[in-house]
Design brief:
Chains A, B: Keywords: Cytoplasm, Hydrolase, Serine esterase. Two copies of one chain form a homodimer. By secondary structure, chain A is of the alpha/beta class. Chain A has one domain: Rossmann fold. Helices cover about 35% and strands about 25% of the residues of chain A. The first copy, chain A, is built from eleven helices and nine strands. In chain A, strand 2 and strand 3 form a beta hairpin. The first copy, chain A, is globular. The interface between A and B is medium-sized, with 24 and 24 residues.
Chain lengths: ~290, ~290
């Protein structure tokens, strides 16, 4: 098991946010960084875990710097994990050519195309590797039997797909302006066409609208999605939340289980995210602290 | 009067944050940018104004992105103005050589040394120019008869000095980890030695510890300061809040008027600032909404 090196540690809202670094097997032996926020503790409490997955061009600092999440997480007694959005420095040819693909754009999948398969494995990094590495570091008081996940844009896609594929792991999921139907959107075509041997067809595995069809409507899910109707990427049909709504309805989910809200006048920025962050954390607290 | 160009506008917490650009006479004709947050409005309300001055290396976006101020300002019905920290692109030789001086390090003063005097006039920019330019743009509903000011580090210095020099303009002042006695600190020596003809001696004009001596203890002030005792710049004696406390006490101010608090375990970062931001905004609201 790789051991964690502490890069930085800052007190915040009574708790501590720590940036760790380790050699990631899941990402082909590259160094990976992530942040963990742990609320103020009496030393005996283990905190439920809320994962935040950031969007294109972002990294492990974007959420804690700009999301405004720590305040409500501290109040609710919930720990936060902020992974990076891709491997860094893999040296794959072309990985730094386009902000929508490669570095900063890992799409939370396990690549299968030869060129990318060694390093671009953010799903394995998040689902398998980080929980194991964190639990091995016994000083980090997290309770992985209670996990939820949320994210923004590409990270909203990540949160929804990981939740729908791993319902045994997560009790709730929420997203800000998620890429909701990537097999029908330019971003998804670029990503799946590049990372996956099977292209867009294999990409259905990473498409919330496709995945929700495979989960029975009687299964019971807890999903909250907000997007702004002034979001340019929404207008450019990169997000397609309506397709997720239609698929959820067709699969028999009541809107109380898959709640998708258009927020008038809001855009794609963290000014939007931070506005609705308190509600999202309250949503997850309901299930994490049940 | 220079007219304002809208660079960007984002809805946040029910209100709107707008970035403006204009040709700044105070800064020698350079383009200057600033952000204004206006809470949700019925169209007839004019909002009291809270200025936020950022620290070294920062700009007009640092506060709104990382401070977590908008949420509480929206709740309290207070507008926020975020100026830049220096002129940009003045082309003065050496202005980009050192993060502690020149670009991103205007120290909220009016330079008098020949080389800097044309462009480095952040005090005039904030005290005279921005209120005039904003009021001329009649679409921005601010009430400049009610103003307060706060800031971080170099911006805490700026907030304290502008408040103590212009008590007719501001009803309250607060600061996070302010440079409290720059004539006795390395940062102040660099800044005053460079920007001011009269050097460190002229710098007393921009030193909170010196200025508070000139304000009678019976005058009544409203000052709140927080710093972290794990702040490396505090440990390096760049901040010297104890000197401000001693001067205030000697001048006859009760601690209820000059409240300086050491926050155990906190450092110089926005993780610290955002933790105490809600209290600071509540502090200003008490006076702005009185």
């Amino acid at each position: 098991m790789a051991s964690l090196e502490t890069v930085q540690s800052n007190k915040s809202f009574g708790g501590v946010i720590t940036k760790y670094k380790f050699e990631s097997k899941a990402l082909g032996g590259l160094n990976a960084q992530f942040n963990v926020f742990v609320p103020e503790s009496d030393g005996s409490t283990k905190f439920p875990v809320l994962w935040y997955l950031a969007g294109l061009t972002c990294n492990e600092d974007t959420g804690p710097w700009k999301g405004g999440f720590l305040r409500d997480a501290a109040d609710a007694g919930i720990a936060l994990i902020f992974p990076d959005t891709s491997p860094r420095g893999a040296g794959v040819q072309g990985e730094d050519d386009d902000w929508q693909f490669g570095t900063g754009a890992g799409f939370y999948l396990n690549a299968t195309a030869d060129k990318w398969a060694k390093n671009y494995r953010m799903r394995a990094h998040i689902i398998e590797e980080l929980p194991a590495v964190i639990q091995a570091a016994t000083s980090i008081p997290l309770d992985f039997t209670r996990q939820s996940i949320f994210g923004h844009s590409m990270g909203g896609l990540g949160a929804l797909t990981l939740y729908l594929k791993h319902r045994d792991l997560f009790v709730s999921c929420s997203a800000f302006a998620p890429i909701s139907n990537p097999t029908n959107a330019p971003w998804g075509h670029t990503a799946f066409g590049g990372y996956l041997k099977g292209g867009v067809d294999e990409g259905k595995e990473y498409d919330p609208t496709e995945l929700i069809k495979t989960v029975g409507g009687d299964a019971g899910v807890h999903i909250l999605v907000d997007y702004g109707d002034a979001d340019n990427f929404y207008k450019q049909k990169q997000l397609l939340p309506e397709n997720l709504v239609a698929a959820a309805e067709k699969a028999g989910f009541p809107t109380s289980q898959v709640t998708v809200r258009a927020q008038p006048g809001y855009d794609h920025s963290y000014y939007f995210i931070s506005t609705f962050a308190p509600e999202h954390i309250k949503f997850h607290a309901k299930f994490l602290k049940a």
